[in-house]
Design brief:
two-stranded antiparallel ribbon
Length: about 160
């Protein structure tokens, strides 16, 4: 093998190590909860600065932290039928004025700086008919009665 080929292989290996390290850092950093907002009956929003990048990581985070979220923030807050819908949003650059299409504004804050750019990262819902549903980046999962996580098409 020539020197040029060895250098190329070494650079590719180094790039792979950097990408792997970055991916591990993304998946291991703690979730920073900025605020919790209760909209209407059964609907709550959690604003975060970081969140696990994979659907599996998001579901595992919820399962590990759901009791803490209930104790500390009173979420999820089910409606009178026991249903709830909780959405986790990236906080991004912070609260902003309405001014731009696609912003989510919170009624429990005084305007004008009471909106965020909509960047949903995860949602959890519960209804008596479907049970607990997780919606990640591009897939939906259901928590079965025996604790398994399944995609609806796998059932």
């Amino acid at each position: 093998m020539r020197l040029k080929e060895k250098i190329i292989i070494a650079l590719l290996f180094l790039a792979g190590c950097v990408l792997l390290s970055y991916w591990l850092w993304l998946s291991q950093r703690p979730v920073d909860i900025i605020a919790v907002h209760h909209r209407s009956s059964g609907f709550s929003d959690v604003l975060v600065n970081s969140f696990p990048p994979t659907d599996k990581g998001k579901i595992n985070w919820w399962l590990k932290n759901k009791e803490m979220l209930n104790d500390k923030y009173g979420i999820p807050k089910p409606d009178r039928n026991g249903h709830f819908y909780l959405t986790i949003w990236l906080f991004g650059d912070g609260y902003k004025e309405l001014g731009k299409y696609g912003r989510l504004c919170f009624d429990d804050m005084k305007p004008p700086v009471n909106c965020i750019d909509k960047e949903r990262v995860f949602s959890i819902s519960f209804s008596k008919n479907r049970g607990t549903i997780f919606t990640g980046s591009d897939s939906e999962y259901r928590l079965t009665a025996d604790g398994k996580i399944l995609k609806p098409e796998d059932e």
